[in-house]
């Protein structure tokens, strides 16, 4: 039995798709089962509720061999610690009480960074909490996702621009969510591993935002420019979208660390190199989103 959390989320739904034809029994935790495609609901066992609820996770993890763990976004949380660590405590209790053998979790690069890294610090504290249960754990550690640009589709479409507080000439890795999902599904289907380890997912190349703007211009057939914005303006934009003060500050602290090279600390290896290039992702994912 494999349990998938956030099965309607960006990564979770792709993990689920990768698992459906495996022959394994699949169970999902979902607040609103109607958000699952009807053909998917017919092929999985559904536990309705929040993965932050101890009763829900105890039911969901009963008899489970492996769990895919990714936090649902909680942009209104009172603190980064509450969003990452406190939310994960019930699951950690259930990992132990239900005898879960293996957990694959979505985390971030940044272990050993000397300063607070906001949401990344929260992710790493979550990893430490899960590891403290003794469960076999693989933390997938990632740089920024290519898919984050989907949040700027309207700006790219209407202004021919996208924005970040990170410098335009800083080259860094990025990865596609579909590659994260593929790595996660492979681990979930493999019963042979044990112990605790981080696995980086770095994509095939290091690009700057200026590089991305050039690629987008070529893919879209129109000029696209990147503009760096001040950190406080970025934070104000986040709170303007409804994010709590604490989570907006956590987002900004993460971006400051990335601008200082946080995502460049992990050397790329053949094992951490995933296949989807930014150009391919732009052609296959972003371009249709902009043209829709």
Low-confidence stretches: none
Q: Kindly state the mean pLDDT as a whole number? A: 97
* Strand content range: 15-25%
Helical coverage, percent range: 40-55%
Q: What would the principal axes of the Cα set say about the shape?
A: globular
What is the count of DSSP helices, taking H or I runs of 4+ residues? 11
Strands, count: 12
CATH superfamily of the domain at 2-145 and 174-202 and 262-274: NAD(P)-binding Rossmann-like Domain
Structural class: alpha/beta
The helix/strand order is: EHEHEHEHEHEEHEEHEEHEHHH
Any guess at the CATH architecture of the domain at 2-145 and 174-202 and 262-274? Answer: 3-Layer(aba) Sandwich
Strand order of the largest sheet: 3-2-1-4-5-6-10
Amino-to-carboxy terminus distance: 38 Å
Description:
This protein has 292 residues and is an alpha/beta fold. The strands form three sheets. The protein has a seven-stranded parallel beta sheet, sandwiched between helices. The two termini are 38 Å apart. The model has no long low-confidence stretch (mean pLDDT 97).
List keywords for this structure.
292 residues; alpha/beta; Rossmann fold; three-stranded mixed sheet; 11 helices
Summary, kept brief:
By secondary structure, this protein is of the alpha/beta class. Helix content is 42%, strand content 17%. It is globular and about 55 Å long.
């Amino acid at each position: 039995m494999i349990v998938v959390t956030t099965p309607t989320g960006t990564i979770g739904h792709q993990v689920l798709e990768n698992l459906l034809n495996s022959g394994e029994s699949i169970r999902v935790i979902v607040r609103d089962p109607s958000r699952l495609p009807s053909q998917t609901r017919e092929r999985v066992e559904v536990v309705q509720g929040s993965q932050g609820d101890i009763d829900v996770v105890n039911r969901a993890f009963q008899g489970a061999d492996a769990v895919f763990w990714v936090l649902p976004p909680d942009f209104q949380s009172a603190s980064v610690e509450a969003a990452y660590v406190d939310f994960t405590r019930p699951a950690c209790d259930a990992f132990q009480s239900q005898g879960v053998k293996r957990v694959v979790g979505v985390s971030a690069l940044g272990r050993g960074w000397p300063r607070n890294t906001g949401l990344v610090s929260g992710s790493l504290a979550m990893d430490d909490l899960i590891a403290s249960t003794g469960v076999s754990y693989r933390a997938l550690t990632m740089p920024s996702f290519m898919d984050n640009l989907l949040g700027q589709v309207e700006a790219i479409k209407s202004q021919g621009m996208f924005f970040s507080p990170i410098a335009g000439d800083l080259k860094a890795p990025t990865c596609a969510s579909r590659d994260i999902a593929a790595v996660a599904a492979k681990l979930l289907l493999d019963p042979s591993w044990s112990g605790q380890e981080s696995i980086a997912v770095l994509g095939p190349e290091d690009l700057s935002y200026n590089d991305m703007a050039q690629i987008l211009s070529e893919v879209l057939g129109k000029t696209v420019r990147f503009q760096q914005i001040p950190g406080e303006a970025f934070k104000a934009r986040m709170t303007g979208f409804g994010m709590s003060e604490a989570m907006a500050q956590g987002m900004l602290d993460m971006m400051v660390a990335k601008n200082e090279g946080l995502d460049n600390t992990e050397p790329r290896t053949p094992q951490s190199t995933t296949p989807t290039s930014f150009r391919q992702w732009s052609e296959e994912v972003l371009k249709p989103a902009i043209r829709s």
